[in-house]
Specification:
The structure holds two protein chains of two kinds.
Chain A lengths: L1 H20 L3 H37 L2 H29 L3 H18 L1 H14 L1
Helix pairs in contact in A: 1-2, 2-3, 3-4
Chain B lengths: L3 H22 L3 H33 L3
Helix pairs in contact in B: 1-2
Classes of the chains: A mainly alpha, B mainly alpha.
């Protein structure tokens, strides 16, 4: 029944944000930020279960290198999670330039984090050929 | 329940807006401006604490 709770919280927060927007746009933005933080906090236990599922799938594969990559994949998901949250908040505030910079930062960081995975893949392919 | 955070921020927002109108009608524009800024800083403080709590929770979920 979590989904009902999430939907209700989101709708109530949206209505509150619109109600306050006419008087002061800053508070509307602050309300939407706090509502999105609240919804993310509600989602984190579900996310923890998803991470657990991902890990025991990886342990089934029990490839030696596989375990190392799982840590990298989790880090990439975390970076994407936070970058998406921040860029959506900036886009919500109307600052699309800042939002795109945050997304660019997220992409670059993910690119750097996933470098070992890519090099592993390339060496694997080179080994086959 | 954790919706209190959103309601608290909305309450401060509405209170500051009303206070702003009252002070402007009373002819004290600068005090109106000050109360708006004070309300904004207070709420910003709460939101920043809340966001840092989110980031630590996310990091603990991803076991980083």
């Amino acid at each position: 029944m979590d989904i009902a709770r999430i939907a209700a919280l989101g709708i109530v927060a949206a209505i509150l944000a619109v109600a306050v927007k006419r008087q002061s746009a800053e508070f509307a933005l602050l309300i939407s930020i706090s509502a999105s933080v609240l919804l993310l906090l509600i989602l984190t236990p579900w996310l923890g279960q998803a991470v657990g599922i991902l890990e025991n799938i990886a342990s089934l594969v029990n490839a030696a290198s596989g375990a190392a990559y799982i840590g990298l994949i989790l880090k990439i998901i975390c970076v994407a999670y936070i970058a998406e949250f921040a860029s959506q908040v900036c886009a919500d505030a109307g600052e699309s330039a800042i939002a795109s910079k945050i997304e660019l930062g997220g992409k670059v960081i993910i690119m750097v984090i996933s470098a070992p995975i890519i090099s592993g893949l390339v060496s694997l392919i080179a080994g086959i050929l | 329940m954790d919706i209190q955070v959103v309601f608290r921020i909305a309450a401060v927002g509405i209170l500051v807006a009303v206070l702003n109108q009252v002070l402007q009608r009373a002819g004290r524009e600068e005090q109106a401006m000050m109360t708006t800024l004070a309300g904004l800083v207070l709420v910003l403080f709460w939101v920043i604490q809340y966001i840092s709590e989110l980031f630590t929770t996310v990091q603990s979920v991803f076991k980083l």
